[in-house]
Structure formats: structure tokens, C-alpha cells
């Protein structure tokens, strides 16, 4: 199992770790700052370095039994199992994902409809809403910006499976149910704005989102509005 350091501190840009396994596709470490793809957020990229060598990490995915796989390009040098390495994020890309991810929570707080899908990118992100109404781009943009400018605190806390079952209204995403059975669920809270299960990486306050606006709205069916946001 890989210790997921990004879950407790999304602002860690690098860490020391020990190599648990390495094959032609990926390196597994005992701990990592690399976010593994999930919940619509892409896996992190960056480098792993050791003894004057380094390997580019082009993606990060979950493997078997709670391991996190740092994906390397074909023909990459690999660190020996048991060696100490330094894992360093492409922080600029990841921080953009954090800004986007936090902004999507604000979008979901402004448009209070069921969420049926979503995707985070460095340049553009989207949520799909279960709704028939027309989305007014300008008013949604200004409502989101007001939440950014209010600079609300963002924090994570954990609750038990049983507590979540007692509060089903916490689960706003209809397509992605939070992982259950692990005994505890991670909740993301934006002070007085949003509270829902989420395993992604977020900012510590909404002000760091900066300028955000709704770039495009697509009608993807009678009851589906796809809303894209962009950052400045
Ligand atoms: Zn989230």
C-alpha cells in the first residue's frame, strides 16, 4: 500500500520515498505526493530522481491493493527496488488542477442540481448537470466569482460510513458514489458553501482560484447541461 501524502497536504510538491516495486510501465513507492487519477481529476506528472538518475512520470494511476503507480515512458531508466528516491511534482500543472477542482465545487454550489459527470483539465473543466433549465453564463460566472472573492476556507474532514448513510443529502454527485466499505469517507468542506464527499486535491481557500468564468454551456439532452469553466 502507498501512503497518499496528497490527501493530508495537497500543497506538498515533493517527498523522499522508498521504491517498493518497479516494472517497465511504472514505479511503486511506499509514499507519494503524486495524485492518482480519480474523481474526474487527472493523475499527476513530474519526475523521480535517485543517485544522479531520473525518470519522467507521465501519469499516476491506482494499482492493486492500494498501491499508486507512477507511470514511466517506454524505455525509461528505473530505480532499483529498495532504493531511496525523490518524487517531485509538475507543480504548475497540479496547482492548476487544484484551482479548477475547487472552482468546480463552487460551480456545483451555484447550480444546485444533481451532478451526473465531470472532468478536470489544466485549461478547461466541466460538470454535467441533471437539469432542463437554461444556464445563464453571466449570472453563474458572477455568482462563482463572488464565492471566490469571499475567500472562504476550504478543509477536509473524515466521517464514518454509518454517519454518511444517515446523511444521504451529502452525496450530490449522482454518477460517482463515494467509496464505501473503507470505514471512513473523506468530506470536502467549503465554509458555508459546500460539503460533500471528495477525494481530490483542493486549495486551502477559495481566493486562490483567481478569476473564473463559465466558458460554454452545451445542451447534451433534455435533462443534461454541460457547463465548462475557464481560469484566467
Ligand atoms: Zn473535490
- H/E series: EHEEEEEEEEHEEHEHEEEE
CA radius of gyration:
19 Å
Share of helical residues: 10-25%
SS-derived structural category: alpha+beta
Number of strands: 16
Which molecules are bound besides the chains? zinc ion
- Strand order, sheet with most strands: 6-5-9-2-3-8-7
Mean pLDDT: 92
- Euclidean distance between termini CA atoms: 38 Å
Layout of secondary structure:
Blueprint: E1 3-4, H1 5-8, E2 14-22, E3 26-29, E4 31-32, E5 46-50, E6 53-57, E7 59-62, E8 68-71, E9 84-89, H2 91-110, E10 114-119, E11 125-130, H3 137-149, E12 154-160, H4 161-165, E13 184-190, E14 194-197, E15 212-219, E16 225-231
Parallel strand pairs: 1-4
Antiparallel strand pairs: 2-3, 2-9, 3-8, 5-6, 5-9, 7-8, 10-11, 11-16, 12-13, 13-14, 15-16
Helix pairs in contact: 2-3
This protein binds zinc ion.
Q: Care to give the gist of this entry?
A:
This protein is α+β, with helices and mostly antiparallel strands and 232 residues long.
Structure description:
The chain has 232 residues and is an alpha+beta fold. The chain has helices at 5-8, 91-110, 137-149, 161-165; strands spanning 3-4, 14-22, 26-29, 31-32, 46-50, 53-57, 59-62, 68-71, 84-89, 114-119, 125-130, 154-160, 184-190, 194-197, 212-219, 225-231. Strands 6-5-9-2-3-8-7 form a seven-stranded antiparallel beta sheet. The protein has a four-stranded antiparallel beta sheet with strand order 10-11-16-15, covered by helices on one side. It binds zinc ion. The site of zinc ion has 6 residues, from helix 2.
Amino acid at each position: 500500500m502507498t501512503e497518499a501524502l496528497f490527501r493530508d497536504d495537497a500543497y506538498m510538491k515533493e517527498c523522499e520515498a522508498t521504491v517498493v516495486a518497479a516494472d517497465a510501465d511504472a514505479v511503486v513507492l511506499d509514499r507519494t505526493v503524486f495524485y492518482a487519477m480519480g474523481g474526474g481529476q487527472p493523475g499527476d506528472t513530474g519526475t523521480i530522481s535517485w543517485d544522479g538518475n531520473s525518470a519522467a512520470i507521465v501519469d499516476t494511476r491506482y494499482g492493486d491493493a492500494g498501491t499508486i503507480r507512477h507511470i514511466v515512458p517506454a524505455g525509461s531508466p528505473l530505480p532499483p527496488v529498495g532504493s531511496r528516491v525523490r518524487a517531485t511534482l509538475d507543480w504548475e500543472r497540479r496547482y492548476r488542477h487544484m484551482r479548477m477542482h475547487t472552482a468546480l465545487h463552487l460551480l456545483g454550489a451555484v447550480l444546485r442540481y444533481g451532478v451526473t459527470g465531470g472532468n478536470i483539465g489544466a485549461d478547461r473543466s466541466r460538470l454535467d448537470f441533471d437539469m432542463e433549465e437554461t444556464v445563464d453564463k453571466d449570472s453563474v460566472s458572477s455568482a462563482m466569482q463572488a464565492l471566490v472573492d469571499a475567500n472562504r476556507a476550504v478543509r477536509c474532514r473524515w466521517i464514518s460510513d454509518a454517519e454518511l448513510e444517515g446523511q444521504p443529502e451529502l452525496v450530490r454527485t449522482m454518477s460517482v458514489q463515494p467509496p464505501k466499505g473503507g470505514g471512513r469517507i473523506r468530506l470536502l468542506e467549503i465554509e458555508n458553501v459546500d460539503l460533500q464527499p471528495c477525494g481530490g486535491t483542493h486549495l486551502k481557500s477559495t481566493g486562490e482560484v483567481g478569476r473564473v468564468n463559465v466558458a460554454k454551456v452545451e445542451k447534451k439532452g433534455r435533462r443534461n447541461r454541460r457547463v465548462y469553466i475557464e481560469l484566467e
